From TrEMBL, chain A:
Residues 19-101 form the Lipoyl-binding domain. This is Glycine cleavage system H protein. InterPro entries: 2-oxoA_DH_lipoyl-BS, Biotin_lipoyl, GCV_H, GCV_H/Fam206, GCV_H_sub, Single_hybrid_motif. The lineage of its organism: Bacteria, Bacillati, Actinomycetota, Actinomycetes, Micrococcales. The keyword rRNA-binding does not apply. It comes from Schumannella soli.
UniProtKB/TrEMBL annotation, chain B:
It comes from the Bacteria. GO terms for biological process: glycine decarboxylation via glycine cleavage system; methylation. It comes from Schumannella soli. One of its GO terms (cellular component) is glycine cleavage complex. This is Aminomethyltransferase. It catalyses: N(6)-[(R)-S(8)-aminomethyldihydrolipoyl]-L-lysyl-[protein] + (6S)-5,6,7,8-tetrahydrofolate = N(6)-[(R)-dihydrolipoyl]-L-lysyl-[protein] + (6R)-5,10-methylene-5,6,7,8-tetrahydrofolate + NH4(+). Its EC number is 2.1.2.10. Residues 306-387 form the Aminomethyltransferase C-terminal domain. NCBIfam families: gcvT, PRK00389.1. Belongs to the GcvT family. The gene is gcvT.
């Protein structure tokens, strides 16, 4: 799998062939606080680039998961649905959200570019 | 005249910092703007902080709260006229939860009033309402032989909340609390909603048995300069007992479970106390003195005005502030109210919410739906509070 790339919506993407694994960044997880509920699209769902496809709720607020490209959901992470705290404890590992078979990805941010975006 | 707090370019005034800002920052706080103050939101896990308060204790910096000292021969008469509480009937060393009302009965703020001496009171208000309360008190002071002093900057406020709070105060090095300043109380005998004097590191402080979490606990008023030392001593005493520093995120879910209103959510200028279930304290049955807003609250809110209820749902999707409450589809499905606060209750494990709803659908047991971003989530009106500690 390639190194992580990022979107301005605070998602990370790991590309492996035509399948992208998508999650939210540690920065986004920290801003949300303890995640208590994750709602993800089922495998087979069609995705439209830019559309909201999932919800990540903390005790204090609600974050949205955006589809970075058109495509189809290959797998939703049942582990994170069962234990939403994985989003906080391992956002770029066990806390991944969905795997998507994509047609074309938009231009993504490098780790350096994303770090610059979130620098306070 | 130009307000010196607002720069000429119209940029917002900088956030105010608590005297404990360095201490809470060192403890790992992530900060948030609350009522114009840069206050700890959470230190790590807000859920862990919430559970620590329910099971052991939490340590909160709530120095953003506004404090006003009122003293003088007519301090009691002034506050009787200014506030809803029967202030002159509060015994020395006791406290009351009350409100300051507008003429039309709307809530300017909810307050705690402590009687620290025969003619000396401490009025504690919300940070975001500091200016409104100061202005209303000053206006209502006219004609009374009493003095109003803003102690907000001079005082820090630290809350120790949870079943082990008392044990932690006993274990706090340098905290002396059984001398003449204790107003006849001891830490062990201090009743709920009472206050006593104490000494820490040679400096006087006030210990009140009050809080905003639904747990037993104490609020400590101390001068700003001494506050960091007190914070460290409380952490040192409490950490081995399971105390965690806790932020405003946990404070909000704790008070919500306890069914306590938060100004700007359940209380506002547009809400009469009776609508929020607080009619019994505005005015209290014993109070004979007139006060601003009395006539309005005695004639009551408008016919059909919405009333505050607790709602409980199943699953894990919470209704949030601003979401609509709907009649069940079998009853037409129309909007009948709005959520003012809501969260997945960390203690109870299911979604809870406070909401203003039409009186016709406010009875306990009533089935209602929450409009959670377009999905109907079934809920039920339940008795408040959602959570009560075991005594």
């Amino acid at each position: 799998m390639s190194e992580l790339q990022y979107t301005a919506e605070h998602e990370w993407i790991a590309v492996d062939g035509d399948v992208a694994t998508i999650g939210i960044t540690a920065y986004a997880a920290d801003k949300l606080g303890d995640v208590v509920y994750v709602d993800l699209p089922a495998a087979g769902s069609a995705l439209t680039a830019g559309a909201v496809v999932g919800e990540i709720e903390s005790t204090k607020s609600v974050g949205e998961l955006f589809a970075p490209s058109d495509g189809e959901v290959v797998e939703a992470n049942q582990a994170v649905i069962d234990d939403p705290s994985l989003v906080n404890s391992d956002p770029t590992g066990d806390g991944w959200m969905i795997r998507v078979r994509f047609t074309a990805l938009p231009t993504l941010l490098s780790a350096e570019e994303y770090a610059a975006l979130t620098a306070e | 005249m130009t307000d010196p707090a607002i720069p000429a370019d119209g940029a917002p005034a900088p956030l105010r910092r608590s005297p404990l800002h360095d201490a809470t920052s060192t403890a790992g706080a992530a900060f948030t703007d609350f009522g114009g103050w840069d206050m700890p939101l959470r230190y790590g896990s807000d859920l862990a902080e919430h559970h620590a308060v329910r099971q052991a204790a939490g340590l909160f910096d709530i120095s953003h709260m506004a404090e006003f000292g009122v003293s003088g021969p007519q301090a009691a008469e002034f506050l009787d006229a200014a506030l809803a509480a029967d202030v002159s009937a509060i015994a020395v060393s006791r406290a009351k939860y009350t409100m300051i009302l507008a003429e039309d009965g709307g809530v300017i703020d909810d307050l705690i009033v402590y009687r620290n001496a025969e003619s000396e009171y401490l009025v504690v208000a919300n940070a975001g309402n500091h200016d409104a309360v100061a202005q209303a008190l000053l206006q209502r002071l006219q004609g009374f032989d009493a003095t109003l002093a803003d102690a907000t900057d001079a005082l820090a406020l630290v809350a120790v909340q949870g079943p082990l709070a008392r044990q932690i105060l006993h274990a706090t090095p340098g905290l002396e609390h059984d001398d003449a300043k204790a107003m006849g109380h001891t830490l062990d005998s201090l009743p709920y909603y009472a206050i006593m004097g104490a000494v820490f590191a040679g400096r006087p402080l006030l210990i009140a048995r009050t809080g905003y979490t639904g747990e037993d606990g104490f609020e400590l008023y101390v001068d700003a300069a001494t506050a960091p030392l007190l914070w460290s001593a409380l952490l040192e005493a409490g950490t081995p007992l399971g105390l965690l520093p806790a932020g405003l995120a946990a404070r909000d879910t704790l008070r919500l479970e306890a069914g306590m209103p938060l100004y700007g959510h359940e209380l506002s200028r547009d809400i009469q106390p009776a609508q929020a279930g607080l009619g019994r304290i505005a005015p209290p049955a014993s109070k004979t003195a007139d006060f601003v807003g009395r006539a309005a609250v005695e004639s009551g809110p408008a016919e059909g005005a919405r009333v505050l209820v607790g709602l409980a749902a199943e699953g894990r999707r919470a209704g949030r502030a601003g979401y609509a409450v709907l009649a069940p589809e079998s009853d037409g499905g129309a909007p009948v109210g709005e959520i003012t606060s809501g969260a997945l209750s960390p203690t109870l494990g299911h979604p809870i919410a406070l909401a203003f709803v039409d009186p016709a659908v406010a009875a306990v047991g009533q089935a209602l739906d929450l409009d959670v971003r377009g999905s109907r989530i079934p809920a039920r009106v339940v008795a408040l509070p959602f959570y009560t500690r075991k005594k």
